[in-house]
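Archive entry. Fields below.
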Amino acid sequence: MTDDLIARLTDELQPAPKRAVPRRLAIGLGAGIFVAAVAMLLWLGLRPDLAEAVFGMMYWWKFLYTAIFAALAFWAAARLARPGGSMRKPMVALFALVAFAGAMGIAQLIIMPPEMSRELVMGGSALLCPFYIVALSIPVYAATALVMRRLAPTNLAGAGFAAGLLAGSAASWVYAFHCTENGMPFLAIWYTTGILIAAVLGAILGRWALRW
Amino acid sequence: MTPTADNEARLKPLMLATLAGDQRAYRALLAELRTHLVRYYARRLNNPAAADDLVQETLMAIHTRRLTYDPTQPFTAWLHAIARYKLIDHFRRSKLRQTLPLEEDAAIFAADDAGDATARMDVDAVLATLPDRPAALIRQVKLEGASIAEAAGRAGMSETAAKVAIHRGLKALTARFIGGAK
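PREDICTED_STRUCTURE:
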């Protein structure tokens, strides 16, 4: 019986496409971001002051923090989509990124007058922000998980965590086009919290959703 | 399937040729992997049928997911991760199967009703390895089609106790004669 199987598999053999893992993951991610962006536009809308905001530093800090976060999470997800993949290196890089954002936030709190602290940390949407990020991460997680389960993750919770980090950071990048907050501490605390919630949910779901 | 340098040096070039579409290399690779996998699963399961299924499933997974192999990494590590995943997956699934309600396996035993004499003797021999009371309960409920209430009444025990005794008895038999179904 195994002989028949081997004969059949040999007959079916086609050359394998190169770099298929990152390419497929990127397609899933792109589809997920598209849905999240449409959802953001219809549900939350662009920030009304976008035209002026692009000349401010904070707009670009948010843009860069979430984009670099997503790039590192993509690296982690691509590694864990393969058998035996480890995410140690991407996690070290992510930790450094979060530590950097945290340090910038603390620096801003020290430089700015103390009566500004509350505004810099809590802004006007502190608790809504993680909620929106998690909500917008749902389509991104669904799309990446669909791709991942057709690859070969062997550490399902880890792969789900990486997919959740990717979904959360991509969603926070989309959300940054809506969000009008201007505090570095706000970014470091609430954006990161939203991404981490998405990652933990992703890890829990992954044990079941990524099975193959 | 220890990832020795020797295996790696032999198998990796075959895998690289396979990814390029070389059928002859692929046939040689699968033949080697088969012997490795048979040994791998036989050593970890004392259930030859399940081990055989796992060998086939793993070969199929290697086939459909071969593009997840990164040529810059060792091939044996990739192979081992897949084989191990399939083994864990097997344990997870057989655990699920064991929690099926007791009634589910009635049909399997009922088929023995019309069985020939040898099968019946086998069943007798198997049941003889259990203590008398659970053996009698299993015989009445599973072979003769009595309800649990009837059998419990005859044995002078509560229905729940009868159910538990039957379940434990079947589990003991499974462990003894099928083995490996953890």
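CURATOR_NOTE: Residues 102-177 of chain B form a domain with the Arc Repressor Mutant, subunit A fold (CATH 1.10.10).
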